[in-house]
């Protein structure tokens, strides 16, 4: 396809503003699918995506419209997948900004719009859902201009649901979004935008060709990964798979190259010709690093092997989470896993339970800490990264601990502002900005990631009855007064419950945890102390009273010696139990205890 006939664009939208519905309409209008095939939303093709209404994996569709090839790049819609979003955006020259005519501009939209602007995109505003009685297109136009700073005069008014404005959107894409640039004679240079595992095709790689061209039988090289592969298929999605002879500059499509694992393909890598390589790789490549870690353990110890297999299978299709074996005194054998964020964690957890039918216990999520250690007798001073509170080094060697911080943007209707400010303050937030836009406050806070991973998002949503929106990116690590808090049940530390906390919030957290465990652990024949401790110092304590088995009841009063003997025997029994350390902590207790209140 000649360059001036190609348009590459993505759709930016806040969750629920109608991105998928609009994408389906565009596909339908340009003849990709029949009415009958349109029954299920096409782009969101994973179950969990559908249920949660969010897009997890990027997909792309090639549309033919009035002699032009339009490539619609779908992007993941959640902050956890920000890097994947950035690569998808880098593959496009423009974007449709879809804003709900009744809801207006939201925080998530903003973050993505700014990213899109950073990629020099031409942005076409689309005001969707104008069929709704509550639609206020003029107000939304004003918001787009005031809040985002984009001209919105020629925004397209549309209803993806009733099919209004679809041709106008397609015409605007052709007229307003610039054609890609590229040199067909230069050595091949293509960006690896995304990849996934397909049971029939193996690993499918979504690419955007910058220069040169790629065809079947070509030897290609991944410049960052350093590996060489033979291309065995080239094609595109309409959204059904169609094989093509080649992909030239400016084009978006897929290749397969007999690759077995997604982990061998890295988003943002540069694909070039193995024999005639490009001089340099594309800019912007980043190694994706998990930021949230937790342990996953099978409820039934016999499921460990099944868990290993299932995790390995999931990992085939998602190189962005990591896992390694972990053992816990309380929970047995399991895996320490790293995720891009809490949503990512939940998705993996949900897939394990749903697709692989596994009952799992998740330990307290932890972020990555940088710990500066002084030298010891045998080791020099050094800096380590800590993913697991259980691996906390000897406190005497700790010089300082740094924790990751984020920059968060929160949109919240005025009436909930007070409670949200308090929440941010309680979580050690530093307010950077507070402005009003329409009836809503736009808040900017710097927050320690550690205070956000537990339940910040849930709290935010419940405080604001779902109206607050939240978006963040990591900024830097900062030194903090951080300590490891252990939870002791019957004087034994339960490793799965230990966590790294700020000294200032430790007591409140410790108390909350002890109180919850008190309710969750059933009574035993002996008294069970539950303590939260920092080092050797107990900062909170609860006691579960003993269940008194009335052994003397059988004695019908009378015989005092016999009574005493029985009591002695019972004491012995208690001791043995304690020696075995046999407090039965029900599995639900772990999950419930970790749910911060
Ligand atoms: P994510 O995939 O989570 O980003 O959501 P989305 O932006 O793709 O939203 P989706 O297309 O799933 O639409 C969200 C809801 O809005 C659905 O219930 C749609 O039926 C509805 N919807 C989409 N477009 C319109 C529209 O033009 N008018 C009306 N009334 N409803 C719409």
From TrEMBL:
Family membership: Belongs to the GTP-binding elongation factor family. LepA subfamily.
UniProt key word Hydrolase: yes
Function statement: Required for accurate and efficient protein synthesis under certain stress conditions. May act as a fidelity factor of the translation reaction, by catalyzing a one-codon backward translocation of tRNAs on improperly translocated ribosomes. Back-translocation proceeds from a post-translocation (POST) complex to a pre-translocation (PRE) complex, thus giving elongation factor G a second chance to translocate the tRNAs correctly. Binds to ribosomes in a GTP-dependent manner.
InterPro entries listed in its UniProt record: EF-4, EFG_II, EFG_III/V, EFG_V-like, EFTu-like_2, G_TR_CS, LepA_C_sf, LepA_CTD
GO MF terms held by the record: GTP binding; GTPase activity; guanosine tetraphosphate binding; ribosome binding; translation elongation factor activity
Superkingdom field: Bacteria
Domain Tr-type G stretches: 4-181
Pfam families named in the record: EFG_C, EFG_III, GTP_EFTU, GTP_EFTU_D2, LepA_C
Localization per Swiss-Prot or TrEMBL: Cell membrane
Database matches in Gene3D superfamilies: 3.30.70.240, Elongation factor 4, C-terminal domain, Elongation Factor G (Translational Gtpase), domain 3, P-loop containing nucleotide triphosphate hydrolases, Translation factors
UniProtKB keywords: Cell membrane, Elongation factor, GTP-binding, Hydrolase, Membrane, Nucleotide-binding, Protein biosynthesis
Record-level GO BP terms: positive regulation of translation
Organism: Sphingomonas chungangi
CDD domains to which the protein is assigned, alphabetical: EF4_II, EF4_III, LepA, lepA_C
Gene assigned in the entry: lepA
Topology in membrane: Peripheral membrane protein
GO cellular component, one term: plasma membrane
EC number(s) recorded for this UniProt protein: 3.6.5.n1
Protein name, per record: Elongation factor 4
Annotated GTP binding sites: 16-21, 128-131
Catalytic activity, reaction form: GTP + H2O = GDP + phosphate + H(+)
Keyword Transmembrane helix found: no
